[in-house]
Write a structure and sequence with these properties.
Elements (H helix, E strand, L loop, with lengths): L8 E5 L4 H12 L4 E5 L3 H17 L5 E4 L7 H14 L5 E4 L14 H29 L6 E6 L14 H21 L4 E8 L8 H7 L2 H4 L9 H12 L10 E4 L13
Parallel strand pairs: 1-2, 1-4, 2-3, 4-5, 5-6, 6-7
Helix pairs in contact: 1-2, 1-8, 3-4, 4-5
Bound molecules: NADP nicotinamide-adenine-dinucleotide phosphate.
């Protein structure tokens, strides 16, 4: 069975580094026709675009990569991003709502502004991206091959023993996963499948601080004995976006080696 995203159009938010860039790479390596990426920094957008174009060339693929800077936590910028996409294509097949951020501090020092900032990007902006791109997703949708929305949640959305004080992050990820399940039901008649990926711990700019604090804790308590790697995420994403996953809708797919079953917070 060959999984691919042949001739499709995808949007990946936060596609300039970390897990979002892995998602964009997976699409470029497996048949995407056009990919839109976005993040706040123009330079990061340009660098990621070049990286993806080089990757396409290396794999003998012809891919159009469009990078548009936008702060998705700012409503007008998110709207502008969607307008820029609409100018270039009349439909999209896949939206990966990946952009996210975190903040951790003890309750006494964890002010409301920090909670609002995290929830605004990880939940409100995910909702807004989906709202903005639904018309274009609907245009590509068919019974035989529904359009796909993939929300980048986290296994941490399942955790209740948070010792690093990431209150907004945990709550926002639980909310994002809930949104995914809710929309999976609402959008199914419109032939759009909505699923969430729940990554475990992957070394990225966002996660490296926590991975450092945890030391060996995260690998020692992981049933598979290691952190996540790019290929782990790419395989899960490609499956969820493939034609073969037509009937997979409303799932929270953990990509964590089983870590969610043995979360290490209590150990460090
Ligand atoms: N790494 C992990 O272990 C892990 C585990 C579970 C879930 N996740 C989730 O996976 C997603 C990606 O995380 P990551 O670890 O890859 O983080 P990362 O390396 O910090 O990447 C975050 C990406 O989002 C962009 N971004 C941040 N704020 C944005 C904004 N306001 N508007 C638009 N783009 C924005 C960043 O670019 P700019 O800075 O240029 O904006 C960057 O491209 C997040 O939703 C995170 O919660 C990660």
């Amino acid at each position: 069975m060959q999984l691919n995203v042949d001739n499709k159009v995808a949007v990946v938010t936060g596609g300039t580094r970390g897990l979002g860039l892995y998602c964009a790479e997976a699409f470029v390596e497996n048949g995407i026709k056009t990919i839109f990426i976005t993040s706040r920094k123009a330079k990061a957008c340009e660098e990621a675009k070049k990286h993806l174009e080089d990757l396409a060339k290396k794999n003998g693929k012809s891919v159009e990569v469009v990078a548009i800077p936008a702060d998705l936590a700012v409503e007008e910028q998110a709207q502008n991003f969607a307008k820029e996409v609409e100018k270039r294509v009349d439909k999209i097949d896949i939206l990966v709502a990946n952009a996210g951020a975190t903040w951790g501090a003890p309750l006494e020092d964890h002010n409301v502004a920090a909670i609002k900032k995290v929830v605004n990007l990880n939940f409100v902006a995910v909702y807004h991206s989906i709202q903005l791109f639904t018309p274009l997703l609907e245009k590509a949708a068919s019974v035989g091959d529904p359009s796909r929305i993939v929300i980048m949640s986290s296994i941490i959305s399942l955790a209740t023993n948070d010792i690093v004080g990431t209150y907004g992050y945990l709550g926002s990820k639980a909310a994002a996963s809930h949104l995914g399940r809710n929309l999976a039901v609402q959008f199914a008649p419109r032939h759009i499948n909505v699923n969430s990926i729940l990554p475990g711990f992957f070394p990225t700019k966002m996660a490296n601080g926590l991975i450092e604090v945890a030391g060996k804790g995260l690998t020692e308590t992981n049933p598979r004995g290691r952190l996540g790697e790019s290929e782990d995420l790419k395989a899960a994403l490609l499956f969820l976006c493939s034609k073969q996953a037509n009937y997979i809708n409303g799932v929270d797919l953990s990509v964590d080696g089983g870590a969610r079953l043995n979360l290490p917070a209590a150990h460090f």
